[in-house]
Amino acid sequence: MAKKRKKQVKGKGKAKATTAKKGQKAAQEAPQPTAATFGKALRVGEGFTLADVDPRSTPAFTGDKQAGKDALVAADAELDTLQEQLFAQSRAGGRRRVLLVVQGMDTSGKGGIMRHVVGSVDPQGVEHTAFKAPSAEEKKHPFLWRIRRALPGPGMIGVFDRSHYEDVLVVRVHDLVPPAQWKRRYATINRFEETLADDDVTIVKVMLHISPQEQKARLGERLERPDKHWKFNPRDLDEREHWADYQEAYQVLLERCSTERAPWFVVPADRKWYARLAVQQLLLEHLRGLDLTWPAADFDVEEQQARLAASEV
After folding, report:
1. In angstroms, rounded to a whole number, what is the distance separating the alpha carbons of residues 90 and 79?
2. pTM of the entire structure?
Protein backbone atom coordinates (compact mmCIF):
# COMPACT_ATOMS: atom_id res chain seq x y z
CA MET A 1 0.00 0.00 0.00
CA ALA A 2 1.04 3.63 -0.39
CA LYS A 3 2.65 4.89 2.73
CA LYS A 4 0.29 7.49 4.10
CA ARG A 5 1.10 9.61 7.09
CA LYS A 6 -1.34 12.05 8.61
CA LYS A 7 0.60 14.57 10.62
CA GLN A 8 -0.60 15.11 14.16
CA VAL A 9 -1.32 18.43 15.82
CA LYS A 10 1.67 19.94 17.53
CA GLY A 11 2.07 23.12 19.54
CA LYS A 12 3.98 25.83 17.72
CA GLY A 13 4.98 27.91 20.76
CA LYS A 14 8.21 29.86 20.72
CA ALA A 15 9.32 28.46 17.38
CA LYS A 16 6.33 30.00 15.63
CA ALA A 17 6.84 33.33 17.40
CA THR A 18 10.48 33.37 16.32
CA THR A 19 9.50 32.55 12.75
CA ALA A 20 6.93 35.34 12.78
CA LYS A 21 9.57 37.87 13.87
CA LYS A 22 11.94 36.67 11.18
CA GLY A 23 9.11 36.91 8.69
CA GLN A 24 8.37 40.52 9.64
CA LYS A 25 11.99 41.49 9.18
CA ALA A 26 12.31 39.54 5.95
CA ALA A 27 9.12 41.08 4.62
CA GLN A 28 10.72 44.52 4.92
CA GLU A 29 14.09 43.59 3.43
CA ALA A 30 13.57 40.82 0.88
CA PRO A 31 12.46 41.27 -2.74
CA GLN A 32 8.77 40.45 -2.68
CA PRO A 33 7.66 37.93 -5.29
CA THR A 34 4.06 37.83 -6.42
CA ALA A 35 2.46 34.43 -6.72
CA ALA A 36 0.68 35.36 -9.95
CA THR A 37 4.05 36.13 -11.51
CA PHE A 38 5.41 32.72 -10.54
CA GLY A 39 2.32 31.02 -11.90
CA LYS A 40 2.61 32.77 -15.23
CA ALA A 41 6.36 32.21 -15.49
CA LEU A 42 6.30 28.51 -14.63
CA ARG A 43 3.08 27.29 -16.19
CA VAL A 44 3.29 24.77 -19.01
CA GLY A 45 1.46 26.09 -22.05
CA GLU A 46 1.19 25.38 -25.73
CA GLY A 47 4.54 24.80 -27.39
CA PHE A 48 6.36 24.17 -24.10
CA THR A 49 9.73 22.43 -24.40
CA LEU A 50 11.31 21.03 -21.25
CA ALA A 51 14.79 21.11 -22.76
CA ASP A 52 14.52 24.90 -23.07
CA VAL A 53 14.14 25.36 -19.30
CA ASP A 54 17.43 26.22 -17.56
CA PRO A 55 17.46 24.25 -14.28
CA ARG A 56 19.59 26.98 -12.64
CA SER A 57 17.30 29.84 -13.62
CA THR A 58 15.08 31.72 -11.18
CA PRO A 59 11.99 32.87 -13.13
CA ALA A 60 9.94 35.64 -11.48
CA PHE A 61 12.57 36.31 -8.83
CA THR A 62 15.55 38.66 -9.13
CA GLY A 63 17.05 38.27 -5.65
CA ASP A 64 19.99 36.16 -4.57
CA LYS A 65 20.03 33.08 -2.33
CA GLN A 66 19.71 34.97 0.94
CA ALA A 67 16.94 37.13 -0.45
CA GLY A 68 15.12 34.00 -1.55
CA LYS A 69 15.40 32.45 1.88
CA ASP A 70 14.14 35.68 3.46
CA ALA A 71 11.19 35.82 1.06
CA LEU A 72 10.31 32.22 1.95
CA VAL A 73 10.15 33.08 5.67
CA ALA A 74 8.26 36.29 4.94
CA ALA A 75 5.39 34.37 3.31
CA ASP A 76 5.08 31.71 6.02
CA ALA A 77 2.50 33.62 8.06
CA GLU A 78 0.13 34.13 5.13
CA LEU A 79 0.45 30.51 4.04
CA ASP A 80 -0.25 29.35 7.60
CA THR A 81 -3.34 31.58 7.87
CA LEU A 82 -4.79 30.49 4.53
CA GLN A 83 -4.28 26.82 5.38
CA GLU A 84 -6.03 27.31 8.72
CA GLN A 85 -8.95 29.10 7.05
CA LEU A 86 -9.29 26.22 4.59
CA PHE A 87 -9.33 23.76 7.47
CA ALA A 88 -11.76 25.87 9.53
CA GLN A 89 -14.22 26.14 6.64
CA SER A 90 -14.42 22.35 6.41
CA ARG A 91 -15.60 22.28 10.03
CA ALA A 92 -18.47 24.48 8.92
CA GLY A 93 -19.42 22.17 6.06
CA GLY A 94 -17.03 23.40 3.36
CA ARG A 95 -15.73 20.80 0.88
CA ARG A 96 -12.80 22.61 -0.71
CA ARG A 97 -9.34 21.01 -0.50
CA VAL A 98 -5.97 21.36 -2.21
CA LEU A 99 -3.84 18.65 -3.77
CA LEU A 100 -0.15 19.44 -4.28
CA VAL A 101 1.49 16.95 -6.65
CA VAL A 102 5.30 16.97 -6.62
CA GLN A 103 7.23 15.06 -9.28
CA GLY A 104 10.90 15.08 -10.21
CA MET A 105 13.99 13.00 -10.80
CA ASP A 106 15.86 11.55 -7.82
CA THR A 107 17.54 14.27 -5.67
CA SER A 108 15.42 17.01 -7.27
CA GLY A 109 14.40 18.28 -3.83
CA LYS A 110 10.99 16.75 -3.09
CA GLY A 111 11.95 16.15 0.54
CA GLY A 112 13.01 19.77 0.93
CA ILE A 113 9.61 20.91 -0.32
CA MET A 114 7.96 18.76 2.34
CA ARG A 115 10.13 20.21 5.12
CA HIS A 116 10.43 23.87 4.14
CA VAL A 117 7.12 24.58 2.42
CA VAL A 118 4.51 22.07 3.60
CA GLY A 119 6.21 21.90 7.00
CA SER A 120 5.51 25.58 7.66
CA VAL A 121 1.75 25.09 8.07
CA ASP A 122 -0.31 23.48 10.84
CA PRO A 123 0.19 19.72 10.48
CA GLN A 124 -3.43 19.20 11.56
CA GLY A 125 -4.52 20.23 8.06
CA VAL A 126 -1.98 18.27 5.99
CA GLU A 127 -2.09 14.75 4.58
CA HIS A 128 1.16 13.53 3.05
CA THR A 129 1.48 10.45 0.85
CA ALA A 130 4.76 9.12 -0.57
CA PHE A 131 4.08 6.74 -3.44
CA LYS A 132 6.53 3.91 -3.92
CA ALA A 133 6.44 0.96 -6.32
CA PRO A 134 2.93 -0.58 -6.27
CA SER A 135 2.39 -3.39 -3.79
CA ALA A 136 1.03 -6.79 -4.79
CA GLU A 137 -2.42 -5.70 -3.63
CA GLU A 138 -2.27 -2.43 -5.58
CA LYS A 139 -1.28 -4.26 -8.76
CA LYS A 140 -4.60 -6.11 -8.63
CA HIS A 141 -6.46 -2.83 -9.17
CA PRO A 142 -6.52 -0.08 -11.84
CA PHE A 143 -3.58 2.30 -11.49
CA LEU A 144 -5.72 5.11 -10.02
CA TRP A 145 -7.08 2.90 -7.22
CA ARG A 146 -4.34 3.73 -4.73
CA ILE A 147 -4.46 7.39 -5.74
CA ARG A 148 -8.17 7.70 -4.99
CA ARG A 149 -7.62 6.15 -1.56
CA ALA A 150 -5.05 8.84 -0.72
CA LEU A 151 -7.01 11.91 -1.82
CA PRO A 152 -7.30 14.66 0.83
CA GLY A 153 -10.54 15.18 2.68
CA PRO A 154 -12.44 18.50 2.89
CA GLY A 155 -10.36 21.31 4.35
CA MET A 156 -7.08 19.45 3.90
CA ILE A 157 -3.94 20.12 1.91
CA GLY A 158 -2.96 16.79 0.41
CA VAL A 159 0.62 16.34 -0.73
CA PHE A 160 1.68 13.61 -3.15
CA ASP A 161 5.41 12.84 -3.17
CA ARG A 162 5.29 11.21 -6.63
CA SER A 163 1.85 10.30 -7.88
CA HIS A 164 -0.31 8.74 -10.58
CA TYR A 165 2.15 10.19 -13.09
CA GLU A 166 4.59 7.43 -12.22
CA ASP A 167 2.28 5.28 -14.34
CA VAL A 168 3.28 7.18 -17.47
CA LEU A 169 6.90 7.66 -16.39
CA VAL A 170 8.46 4.58 -14.80
CA VAL A 171 6.19 2.13 -16.62
CA ARG A 172 7.06 3.77 -19.93
CA VAL A 173 10.80 3.98 -19.38
CA HIS A 174 11.06 0.40 -18.14
CA ASP A 175 8.40 -1.18 -20.40
CA LEU A 176 6.39 -2.43 -17.43
CA VAL A 177 3.13 -2.47 -19.37
CA PRO A 178 2.39 -2.55 -23.12
CA PRO A 179 2.72 0.85 -24.86
CA ALA A 180 -0.95 0.81 -25.84
CA GLN A 181 -1.83 0.63 -22.13
CA TRP A 182 0.25 3.51 -20.85
CA LYS A 183 -0.68 5.66 -23.85
CA ARG A 184 -4.35 5.44 -22.83
CA ARG A 185 -3.51 6.69 -19.36
CA TYR A 186 -2.96 10.32 -20.38
CA ALA A 187 -6.63 10.70 -21.26
CA THR A 188 -7.64 8.71 -18.18
CA ILE A 189 -5.60 11.02 -15.95
CA ASN A 190 -7.11 14.12 -17.55
CA ARG A 191 -10.65 12.84 -16.96
CA PHE A 192 -9.75 11.90 -13.38
CA GLU A 193 -8.35 15.34 -12.61
CA GLU A 194 -11.39 16.97 -14.21
CA THR A 195 -13.66 15.07 -11.80
CA LEU A 196 -11.47 16.20 -8.90
CA ALA A 197 -11.79 19.81 -9.96
CA ASP A 198 -15.56 19.36 -10.17
CA ASP A 199 -15.45 18.05 -6.59
CA ASP A 200 -13.82 21.22 -5.19
CA VAL A 201 -10.25 19.92 -5.35
CA THR A 202 -7.71 22.55 -6.35
CA ILE A 203 -4.81 20.75 -8.04
CA VAL A 204 -1.28 22.17 -8.05
CA LYS A 205 1.09 20.01 -10.12
CA VAL A 206 4.80 20.75 -9.86
CA MET A 207 7.73 19.19 -11.67
CA LEU A 208 11.09 19.91 -10.04
CA HIS A 209 13.47 20.19 -13.00
CA ILE A 210 17.06 19.31 -12.09
CA SER A 211 20.08 19.00 -14.38
CA PRO A 212 22.07 15.75 -14.63
CA GLN A 213 25.17 17.65 -13.45
CA GLU A 214 23.43 18.84 -10.28
CA GLN A 215 22.02 15.38 -9.63
CA LYS A 216 25.53 13.93 -9.90
CA ALA A 217 26.79 16.46 -7.37
CA ARG A 218 23.98 15.70 -4.92
CA LEU A 219 24.46 11.95 -5.23
CA GLY A 220 28.19 12.48 -4.66
CA GLU A 221 27.48 14.42 -1.49
CA ARG A 222 25.32 11.58 -0.20
CA LEU A 223 28.16 9.15 -0.78
CA GLU A 224 30.80 11.38 0.81
CA ARG A 225 28.91 12.18 4.00
CA PRO A 226 28.11 9.40 6.50
CA ASP A 227 25.08 11.38 7.70
CA LYS A 228 23.72 11.24 4.16
CA HIS A 229 24.32 7.55 3.42
CA TRP A 230 20.81 6.68 4.54
CA LYS A 231 19.45 8.84 1.70
CA PHE A 232 21.49 7.06 -0.98
CA ASN A 233 19.99 4.21 -2.95
CA PRO A 234 22.17 2.33 -5.48
CA ARG A 235 19.08 2.15 -7.69
CA ASP A 236 19.36 5.91 -8.17
CA LEU A 237 22.43 5.27 -10.30
CA ASP A 238 20.52 2.67 -12.31
CA GLU A 239 17.75 5.18 -12.98
CA ARG A 240 20.30 7.82 -13.89
CA GLU A 241 21.30 5.69 -16.89
CA HIS A 242 17.79 6.31 -18.27
CA TRP A 243 18.00 10.10 -18.00
CA ALA A 244 17.18 10.84 -21.64
CA ASP A 245 14.23 8.43 -21.60
CA TYR A 246 12.80 10.10 -18.51
CA GLN A 247 13.17 13.56 -20.05
CA GLU A 248 11.25 12.36 -23.09
CA ALA A 249 8.55 10.83 -20.89
CA TYR A 250 8.22 14.06 -18.90
CA GLN A 251 7.97 16.12 -22.08
CA VAL A 252 5.05 14.04 -23.32
CA LEU A 253 3.13 14.05 -20.04
CA LEU A 254 3.59 17.80 -19.70
CA GLU A 255 2.23 18.29 -23.21
CA ARG A 256 -0.67 15.87 -22.76
CA CYS A 257 -1.70 16.57 -19.16
CA SER A 258 -1.27 20.31 -18.60
CA THR A 259 -4.92 21.33 -18.77
CA GLU A 260 -6.85 24.49 -18.03
CA ARG A 261 -8.15 23.21 -14.69
CA ALA A 262 -5.05 21.22 -13.72
CA PRO A 263 -1.99 22.81 -15.35
CA TRP A 264 1.59 21.74 -14.80
CA PHE A 265 4.25 24.08 -13.43
CA VAL A 266 7.92 23.34 -14.14
CA VAL A 267 10.18 24.66 -11.39
CA PRO A 268 13.94 24.95 -12.05
CA ALA A 269 15.45 22.98 -9.16
CA ASP A 270 19.24 23.22 -9.33
CA ARG A 271 19.00 25.98 -6.72
CA LYS A 272 17.19 24.44 -3.75
CA TRP A 273 16.29 27.78 -2.22
CA TYR A 274 14.56 28.91 -5.41
CA ALA A 275 12.60 25.68 -5.87
CA ARG A 276 11.24 25.94 -2.32
CA LEU A 277 10.27 29.57 -2.80
CA ALA A 278 8.61 28.88 -6.15
CA VAL A 279 6.50 25.99 -4.85
CA GLN A 280 5.50 28.04 -1.82
CA GLN A 281 4.40 30.90 -4.05
CA LEU A 282 2.46 28.59 -6.37
CA LEU A 283 0.65 27.13 -3.37
CA LEU A 284 -0.08 30.61 -2.08
CA GLU A 285 -1.46 31.67 -5.46
CA HIS A 286 -3.95 28.84 -5.52
CA LEU A 287 -5.00 29.31 -1.89
CA ARG A 288 -5.56 33.02 -2.48
CA GLY A 289 -7.70 32.12 -5.45
CA LEU A 290 -10.11 30.29 -3.15
CA ASP A 291 -11.05 33.62 -1.50
CA LEU A 292 -10.94 32.03 1.94
CA THR A 293 -12.52 33.61 5.03
CA TRP A 294 -13.10 32.57 8.61
CA PRO A 295 -16.45 30.75 9.02
CA ALA A 296 -19.11 32.67 10.91
CA ALA A 297 -19.95 31.49 14.43
CA ASP A 298 -23.01 29.23 14.63
CA PHE A 299 -23.81 30.48 18.14
CA ASP A 300 -24.61 33.83 19.83
CA VAL A 301 -21.17 35.26 20.56
CA GLU A 302 -22.37 37.90 23.02
CA GLU A 303 -24.40 35.35 24.92
CA GLN A 304 -21.40 33.07 25.29
CA GLN A 305 -19.19 35.99 26.34
CA ALA A 306 -21.67 36.81 29.08
CA ARG A 307 -21.76 33.20 30.24
CA LEU A 308 -17.99 33.11 30.37
CA ALA A 309 -17.80 36.33 32.35
CA ALA A 310 -20.33 34.98 34.85
CA SER A 311 -18.59 31.66 35.33
CA GLU A 312 -16.91 31.18 38.72
CA VAL A 313 -14.37 28.56 37.75
Report:
1. 17
2. 0.87
